[in-house]
Design brief:
The chain has helices spanning about 1-5, 20-35, 45-50, 80-90, 120-135, 155-175, 185-205, 205-250; strands at about 10-15, 40-45, 65-70, 105-115, 135-140, 145. The termini are far apart. About 55% of the residues lie in helices and about 15% in strands.
Length: about 250
């Protein structure tokens, strides 16, 4: 369990109308309240591009990830999920050189959609297949929130899944009822590789958003270090100058 304390539980979402985001934030708050673990709730694309705790956590997976996604239009990704969907499709293509090893990751998935559309649940399904193909282990049944359902309605379906499916599964992991489901130290180490693999694919697919930012960040870091050293040198020089003048006047 100590390995989980060093990583936040990630709740990642993509939402067009706000329903998925609301569900994700509800889950995040309840996880923190029930178990005391740090949670990070953010857009899927922000997880890739910005990170959940600054630049260095871009694409940094956690041992436990809860995904909440919907479909938009003809099975496309909704707001906040465009890049993640592109990464998933890249992995699911025949490109044998593209891989992300998520064997150290466990996940749960809540999907929202409208069954009156022929592409109902396409984006959540692509997300599930992507996670499974990368080796991530699903901890419970997928939640299917159908907007066309009336009895129960979508909100009730979501709440039932949270109460009766997701949190009983989380209890087994986070309350130590099933220690075999906890990540080992080797699992934690492999998350570093997963981060680099994910970042490499993002740099390939979105060079303007990732390569340039990486270079700019490195340049800013170098400038800060250089300026910091220079400023320190100037201050030290001024101090010595003042001391020298004081000694000469004595």
């Amino acid at each position: 369990m100590s390995s989980l304390t060093n990583h936040p539980i990630l709740i990642l979402y993509a939402s067009q109308t706000g329903n998925t985001e609301t569900a994700a934030r509800t889950i995040s708050q309840r996880v923190h309240k029930n178990y005391g673990y740090t949670t990070k709730c953010l857009w899927l694309d922000d997880f890739l591009e910005a990170g959940y705790d600054g630049y260095k956590t871009r694409c940094r997976w956690s041992p436990l990830v809860i995904l909440a996604v919907s479909s938009y239009g003809v099975g496309q990704a909704p707001l906040g999920g465009y890049k993640f969907r592109a990464v998933a499709e890249h992995i699911l293509s025949d490109d044998q050189n593209a891989k992300i090893d998520l064997n150290s990751v466990q996940f749960a998935l809540l999907g929202l959609g409208d069954s009156t559309y022929t592409t109902f649940f396409k984006n959540p399904k692509v997300t599930e297949i992507f996670m499974a193909q990368c080796g991530a282990k699903r901890i419970c049944d997928v939640g299917i929130g159908d907007a066309a359902s009336t009895s129960p309605d979508q909100a009730e379906i979501i709440q039932n899944w949270i109460d009766k499916v997701l949190f009983p599964a989380l209890d087994k992991i986070l309350l130590k009822k099933d220690c075999s489901m906890l990540p080992s130290n080797d699992d934690i180490l492999s998350l570093d590789s997963a981060k680099e693999e994910t970042l490499k694919i993002c740099e390939t697919l979105f060079p303007d958003d990732f390569e340039k930012k990486s270079k700019n960040y490195e340049q800013r870091g170098a400038m800060v270090r250089k300026c910091g050293f220079g400023t320190t040198a100037v201050i030290v020089g001024l101090v010595f100058a003042v001391i020298s003048v004081a000694i000469m006047k004595q």
